[in-house]
């Protein structure tokens, strides 16, 4: 088992890749009682066009399959269903699907060995029938409607849909009522057999555990199971252009206060000689200093009573393009849009600001490391995003410098943007 | 972990000493009997205090200071707990080991600066900060109406009993905002310092003597002590005919809320038996309601029950299709009857108990959860973690059956999603 230190956090990471391809990551934290285990596949809503493991032809599956499949994994042919099993052992169980991954999880301080074995077992024994697939459609339809009523989800989904053109990152993870109605058990098995191979999956355990013991349980569990040899999954490649799909859209909903996003799309190859992680860090700091809570711009908007709440900044990327979104709520959203468009011509960053933001990022890492849930998510996110766990965040952040920051700032191109507005009816 | 309560005359200092965390958390609570006409003022006060202070004249300067203090987080809220209205100022920051030598002192200075040295001129709050807080509060209140979950819950409470503090909005009321000015809000602040009951909770790797000295030196106030109120609401009348209310709003999904009043319970019943009852009926994906209404009948995505001990209220909430209203209610009633008849397995009770035992055990992993147990110990005489683990295990089926007879169905409220109706208007 490999052992590495998480810099500045007084924690160690143990890891190993098993013979069947399954990767295991463990961070013991013995001053707490609870244990959190996640079992993830590198399969989310964006993997919708691929060559299934039993054929040579590229297929396209309906939108929302990864999420539907996640729901259906809770169906078991025999024995207790997962919720009952974990509940009887006092553990919390759940699962979630994003654009990039599907994760099954439990947390609980007791019955760890049983729980971990069960997590591996139920995720590795699918049971889909025509009947149970049909039944799920009504439930997911209600879930879709719940999100449709939520202006913030509509705004988020609309923003992604209009900002990207080709990459399926633009589509809703959950799918639509129409697309989920096309799902059959055969489609689910195709996706399952392709993406739920141990070679495409990883386990992360954080909390009060002994790493050797965790590894022993997992190795023992996997030893008796047979899997097809794992090859590289052929995924459709998308050539994402720099342009956005749609520059502006207004959706009318039952809201009192209009909500708006202004998103800038950056081609990441415009920032050479630094890593993806550094690119995202610099861009985030630049946006934060110019539009975040500590910016004069944000303060002036409030002083001029154009909005009462702070601007909020978020980002997402598909490795070739990063999207930085500024969110705000205001009756006078057109004015804010104009002001931001004007402000981007004069973005600045001082060394003092950069150093202060570095301090806050380093501090957030320390906060994160006190919590076994956040720690686990950091590992999962790193693997999905960077293909490995980043243990040297501290040095990376420390080494950020004003010269590189200015060079990123200089190369930022604001021509590609998309505006999404949720306005009153 | 060591706990010490120090009576400092004007306030109690509760010190929880543990070296488990890299952080220190402080919560300062002011409580008084809840009065509907004071809610808006207190809610506004919680915002104004965080807009600026004498030393940091704007929110931006405050935010910059929190970053310099290694991302100290600070927030405040005004909330209703039974018969009390509580104003709470809380902050979490990294301890000296992960920052610098004077971090603890600097952070306490900053927190008390916010609380005790507000931005005042001629016995009035600074006009700019006041106006910003007013605008933000107005927007918050407007946003609440847009949120179907929040709106349906508070409407169901109002339909049940408009005079009960349960149905009050702790954030305040739009129609009351115009009655507040910089002067009378400052009077409200002075009155809070003078006549509220004050408790300060601190948790972390701390030196008790140092904390005590810091507070006695920097938090000097004189209070008029008033006798405490009964914290928990109590009912002497129960509705014989259930009240049913349907209200239309332009949402996709409908929200069903069922409210029950609960007879006066013993401390043991309220702390333990009700938890087990609620867990079996609607506590999670293994619950009777989830299995019957969602899994068997596909009528909803979400359904759960909860017990609000300080209000003595039991609630069932579901997101449904309006066509399913009658069927949902009748299925729920059937499950309630089954609970009264004890038609569930011993395993259900065991699952509830092990879930709570796990959750009590995990409480110790989170400083805010630990603090929460000491707060409910102080306010409600609730047991501390070790006793909770012992006591929940004593709950048996007879107790759960007998408590089901003390829960009285009061109001069934449906927020009917009606998108078409809205278009016709």
Key features?
heterodimer, A: 425 residues, alpha+beta, Cytochrome Bc1 Complex, Chain A, domain 1, 2 domains, five-stranded mixed β-sheet, 15 helices, 14 strands, B: 425 residues, 16 helices, 45% helix, disordered C terminus
Provide an overview of this structure.
The complex is a heterodimer of chains A (425) and B (425). Chain A has helices spanning 65-72, 82-88, 112-123, 130-148, 151-163, 177-181, 185-195, 211-223, 276-291, 296-303, 333-343, 351-369, 372-386, 393-398, 402-411; strands spanning 2-6, 11-17, 23-28, 35-41, 49-50, 59-60, 92-97, 102-107, 201-207, 248-253, 259-267, 312-317, 321-329, 417-424. With 425 residues, chain A is α+β, with helices and mostly antiparallel strands. Chain A has a 7-stranded mixed β-sheet with strand order 1-2-3-9-4-8-7, sandwiched between helices. A 5-stranded mixed β-sheet of chain A has the order 10-14-11-13-12, with helices on both faces. Chain A has a two-stranded antiparallel sheet with strand order 5-6. In chain A, helix 1 crosses helix 7, helix 3 (112-123) runs parallel beside helix 8 (211-223) and helix 9 packs across helix 15. Chain A starts with a strand and ends with a strand. The mean pLDDT of chain A is 95. Mean pLDDT of chain B is 94; it is low at 421-425. With 425 residues, chain B is an alpha+beta fold. Chain B folds into 2 domains: 2-218, Cytochrome Bc1 Complex, Chain A, domain 1, CATH 3.30.830; 243-424, Metalloenzyme, LuxS/M16 peptidase-like (Cytochrome Bc1 Complex, Chain A, domain 1), CATH 3.30.830. At the A-B interface, helix 2, helix 4, helix 10 and helix 12 of A face helix 2, helix 4, strand 11 and helix 12 of B.
């Amino acid at each position: 088992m490999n052992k590495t230190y998480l810099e500045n956090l007084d924690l160690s990471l143990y890891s190993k890749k098993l013979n069947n391809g399954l990767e295991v990551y463990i961070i013991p934290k013995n001053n707490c009682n609870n244990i959190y285990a996640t079992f993830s596949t590198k399969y989310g809503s964006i993997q919708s066009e691929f060559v299934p493991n039993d054929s040579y032809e590229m297929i396209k599956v309906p939108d929302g399959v990864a999420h539907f499949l996640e729901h259906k994994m809770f169906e078991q042919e025999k024995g207790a269903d997962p919720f009952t099993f974990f509940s009887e052992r006092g553990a919390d169980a759940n699962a979630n699907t994003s654009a990039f991954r599907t994760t099954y999880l439990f947390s609980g301080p007791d019955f760890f060995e049983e729980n971990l074995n069960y997590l591996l077992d139920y995720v590795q024994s699918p049971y889909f029938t025509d009947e149970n697939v049909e039944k799920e459609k009504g439930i997911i339809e209600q879930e879709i409607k719940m999100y449709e009523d939520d202006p913030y989800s509509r705004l988020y989904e609309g923003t992604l849909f209009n900002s990207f053109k080709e990459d399926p990152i633009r589509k809703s993870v959950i799918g639509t009522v129409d697309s989920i109605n096309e799902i059959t058990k055969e489609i689910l098995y195709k996706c399952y057999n392709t993406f739920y191979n141990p070679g495409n999956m990883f386990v992360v355990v954080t909390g009060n555990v002994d790493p050797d013991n965790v590894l022993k349980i997992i190795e023992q569990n996997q030893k008796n199971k047979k899997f097809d040899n794992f090859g590289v999954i052929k995924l459709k490649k998308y050539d994402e252009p720099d342009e956005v799909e749609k520059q502006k859209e207004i959706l009318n909903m039952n809201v009192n206060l209009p909500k708006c996003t202004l998103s800038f799309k950056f081609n990441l190859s415009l920032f050479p000689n630094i890593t993806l992680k550094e690119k995202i860090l610099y861009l985030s700091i630049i946006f934060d200093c110019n539009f975040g809570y500590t910016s004069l711009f944000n303060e002036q908007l409030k002083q001029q009573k154009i909005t009462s709440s702070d601007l909020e900044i978020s980002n997402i990327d598909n490795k070739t393009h990063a999207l930085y979104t500024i969110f705000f709520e205001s009756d006078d959203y057109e004015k804010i849009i104009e002001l931001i468009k004007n402000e981007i011509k004069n973005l600045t960053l001082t060394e003092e600001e950069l150093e202060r933001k570095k301090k806050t990022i380093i501090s957030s890492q320390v906060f994160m490391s006190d919590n076994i849930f956040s720690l686990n998510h950091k590992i999962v996110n790193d693997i999905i995003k960077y293909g490995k766990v980043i243990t040297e965040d501290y040095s990376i952040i420390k080494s950020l410098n004003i010269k590189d920051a200015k060079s990123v700032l200089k190369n930022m191109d604001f021509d590609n943007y998309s505006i999404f507005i949720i306005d009153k009816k | 972990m060591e706990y010490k309560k120090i009576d400092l005359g004007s306030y109690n200092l509760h010190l929880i000493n543990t070296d488990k965390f890299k952080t220190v958390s402080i919560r300062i609570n002011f409580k008084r009997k809840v009065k509907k006409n004071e809610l808006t003022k207190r809610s506004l006060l919680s915002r104004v205090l965080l807009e600026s202070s004498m030393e940091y004249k704007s929110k931006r300067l405050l935010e910059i200071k929190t970053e310099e203090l290694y991302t100290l987080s600070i927030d405040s809220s005004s909330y209703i707990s039974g018969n009390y209205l509580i104003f709470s100022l809380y902050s979490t920051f990294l301890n000296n080991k992960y920052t610098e030598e004077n971090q603890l002192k600097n952070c306490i200075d900053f927190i008390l600066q916010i609380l005790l040295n507000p931005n005042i001129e001629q016995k009035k709050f600074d006009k700019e900060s006041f106006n910003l807080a007013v605008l933000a509060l107005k927007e918050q209140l407007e946003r609440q109406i847009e949120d179907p979950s929040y709106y349906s819950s508070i409407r169901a409470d109002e339909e049940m009993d408009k005079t009960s503090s349960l149905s009050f909005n702790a954030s305040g009321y739009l129609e009351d905002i115009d009655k507040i000015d910089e002067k009378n809000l400052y009077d409200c602040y002075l009155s809070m310092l003078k006549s509220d009951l004050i408790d300060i909770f601190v948790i972390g790797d701390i030196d008790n003597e140092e904390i005590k000295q810091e507070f006695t030196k920097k938090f000097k106030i004189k209070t008029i002590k008033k006798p405490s109120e009964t914290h928990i609401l109590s009912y002497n009348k129960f509705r014989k005919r259930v009240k049913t209310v349907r209200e239309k709003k332009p949402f996709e999904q409908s929200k069903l809320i069922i409210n029950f009043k609960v007879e006066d319970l013993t401390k043991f019943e309220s702390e333990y038996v009700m938890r087990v009852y609620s867990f079996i009926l609607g506590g999670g994906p293994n619950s009777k309601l989830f299995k019957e209404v969602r899994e068997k009948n596909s009528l909803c995505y979400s359904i759960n029950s909860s017990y609000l001990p300080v209000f003595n209220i039991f609630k069932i909430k579901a997101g449904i299709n309006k066509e399913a209203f009658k069927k949902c209610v009748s299925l729920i009633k059937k499950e309630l009857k089954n609970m009264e008849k004890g038609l569930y397995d011993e395993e259900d009770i065991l699952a509830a108990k092990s879930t709570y035992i796990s959750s009590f055990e995990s409480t110790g992993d989170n400083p805010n959860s630990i603090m929460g147990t000491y707060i409910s110990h102080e306010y409600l005489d609730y047991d501390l973690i070790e006793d909770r683990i012992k006591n929940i295990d004593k709950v048996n089926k007879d107790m759960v059956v007998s408590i089901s007879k003390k829960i009285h169905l009061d109001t069934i409220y449906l927020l009917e999603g009606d998108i078409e109706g809205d278009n016709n208007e």
